[in-house]
Each structure stands twice: as structure tokens, then as C-alpha cells.
Amino acid sequence: DVVVQKALRRLLETRGFLVTTCGSGVEALRACKDEDFCVGFVDLKMPEMDGMELIRRLKGKKPGMSIVMITAYGEITTAVEAMKQGAFHFMTKPFDNEEVLDLATSAVTQSREAYASQSSQKRKVSAIVGDSPAMQTIYGLIERVAPTDSTVLITGESGTGKELVARAMHDGSPRASKPMVPVNCGSIPENLLESELFGHVKGAFTGALYSRPGRFSLADKGTIFLDEIGDMSPHLQTKLLRVIQEQSFEPVGSTKTLQVDVRVIAATHQDLRKLIEEKKFRMDLYYRLNVIQIQLPPLRDRGEDIPRLCDHFLKTFNQRLRGNILGFDDDAMSYLKGYSWPGNVRELENLI
Fold it and tell me: What residues contact 116, with CB distance under 8 A and at least 6 apart?
């Protein structure tokens, strides 16, 4: 109702609130797409989409937003249903001006607390840049899975940010105060990787002049990130399977079994199912690692993120190199958005 919109706007602006008015639920969703509003006053009877449906959608997209349901139909059942959908409060028309102002003030306070809580979680994934639908799905998975101890397999092409996702998973977990220890299984020679993972005792092999703890020991109570797991030899795959199953292992050259409490996150750019068919990767290890899978999209499939990534890297390198590059002209951005990026985000970062 346009009259109600104008009346509420004038009233709220007298207390210093910045107000946007919308004539339908569809308009409201459009307005909320690019801005985090603190409070929404939502009518029950509206064209195209009723207030209940709008509340459900708003709370799904903007869980920190406090919503007050306004209606001339003040049945208690409607009020209860509005609360179930996530409404902060419920009031009937004709409304009392002081009630509106009090509700707005209280709702802003609640909303700020909610957004502060969300931003704490968002900081854990702040190193990952992108607002595309594909990345929103990734953020949702991180938020749901990070607090658990589930083993996670991150897949995707080289340069898509698998280690950043692993770091976000660790930082969002109860293990965040303990170390996350990364191991690139593809960059360490096979004859050294076993010692690197499990440690060794003095004299275990030529050159072992002293005992050394492995990465699993260093990651105790924390997280170990096994990057490029598809490059691991079958022999080490067998030992890794036992560590995941039993949380125990023997250092190289030792008969003493060590117990650890480690969450395992693995990553690969390879097709592990294909490696299984080629007898290069153990099926039982695959199923142990693939409890939760996060598939990272290549940059070419999320081109809408390229401008924001460019700005992010430009800011980073301006600070690092004491530069003052202001931005990208239209031709440059058109080229960047049209390129296929075989090296993904890493290639874009290096180019910037």
C-alpha cells in the first residue's frame, strides 16, 4: 500500500533511519540483492508474493535481517506462523507510531548482533573471493561441514583455490586454535614422503642423523591437508588408510605405534575414479577420503567473479608493491572476462 509505505518512511526517517520502500515482494528481493538491510517491515497481503513467502525467502538470503510482519489480519495463528518463518515481531494495522519506532530500534540491535556473528564466520572464508552462485554453494558447504570432523575431499583444476578452501574449513572448525599442516604429495619424492608424513627415528636410513616427527604428529589435535593426493604411491596409500581408520602409525624405522587425533582434508586435480580403474588408487582409500566432496568450479565457469577478483588482486599488489594503479579500463576488463583462464585464479593473480 503506497500510503502505508510513505507513512512508515516519514515516521522512521524522523529517527534517522535510512529507508527503502518497495511495492511488492519481488521488488523487496531485488532491493535486498545488493544491500544488507537491518530491518524489514513486511505486509502480509501483497501482489505476486505474500508476506509469509517473502519472509521465508528473505531469511534464507539474509539471515541477519530482522523482519516485522504488518497485517490487518491479527489472528494469533498468523502471528505464530510468521514467527516460525523467522519474523522478529508481529503487529497489526492501524499501527501505533511509538510501537513502530520501538520495534525498529530493537530490531536494528538484534540485526547488528546477527550480522556480527555472521561476519565472524565470513572472515573464515574471507581469503576466497567470489559472489557467483557456484561460490555461494561452496561457502554454504564450508559453513555446514567445517564444524564437523568429517574427512573432506576437495577436487578441481589446478589453481582453483583448493588450499584456501581447506584453510577455511580448518579455521571454521573447533580445531582452529591448533595447527593446519599442509603436505604437497606431488612435490615430495616418494622415498621421502613416508618420512615426511610419519616421521623417522635416528638411523632409520642413510642420513637420518636424528629422530624427526612427521606431519601427522605436528598436526595432532589439528588438521592435515594432503594436497595432490592422487600422486601418492600405492604403498603410502595403504599406510594412509590405516591412519585414517585407526588414527595411529609407526614412524619410519620404529616399532612404536603413535596415536594422533587429526582431521584429514585431501585435495586433487585428478580424476580419482579414473585412477581407481587404472589400479593407481585404492578404492577403499577413496571412500575414506570422499566422505564430503567439495568440487571447485574453474574460473571460466564463474566469469562474473573476474572483476571482483581483479580488484582484490589489484588492491593486494598495490599495497605490496606501493603502487597506485586505480583500476581497469573497459578494453582490459573485456579481455580478462573473455579469456578462458586454463590456470584459473592462480593464473589471474600472476597476470595482475
Answer: none
Given this model, what pLDDT does residue 13 score?
86
Closest to 265 measured CA to CA, from 194, 173, 129, 140:
173
Q: Determine how many CB atoms are found less than 10 A away from the CB of residue 268.
A: 24
Half-sphere exposure of 12 (CA within 13 A, CB side): 20
Mark out the alpha helices in the chain (DSSP H runs).
2-13, 25-32, 51-61, 76-84, 97-123, 133-145, 162-171, 190-198, 215-218, 234-246, 272-277, 283-289, 306-321, 330-338, 344-351
Query: CA 281, CA 133: separation in Å to the nearest integer?
Result: 32
Distance CA 335, CA 247 (A): 50
Cα separations in angstroms, 351 against 123, 199, 260, 313, 336:
26, 38, 42, 10, 10
Q: State the chain's maximal CA–CA distance in angstroms.
A: 87
Residue bearing cell 616421521: 199
Locus of grid cell 519474523:
87
* Pairing assessment for the beta strands 66-71 and 39-43 based on DSSP bridges: parallel
Mean pLDDT, rounded, for 32-54: 84
pLDDT at 113: 65
The answer to whether 227 and 162 have CB atoms below 8 angstroms apart is yes
Torsion-angle region of residue 117: left (phi > 0), alpha (psi -120 to 50) or beta? alpha
CA 333 to chain centre: 26
Which tens digit of pLDDT belongs to each residue from 264-275? 999 999 999 999
Percent of the chain with pLDDT over 70: 93
Local confidence band at 127 (pLDDT 50, 70, 90 cut-offs): low
Mean residue pLDDT of the chain comes to 87
- Going by the DSSP 8-state scheme, the letter that residue 200 receives in this structure is B
Does residue 61 register a pLDDT over 80?
A: no
* Average confidence (pLDDT) over 121-128: 54
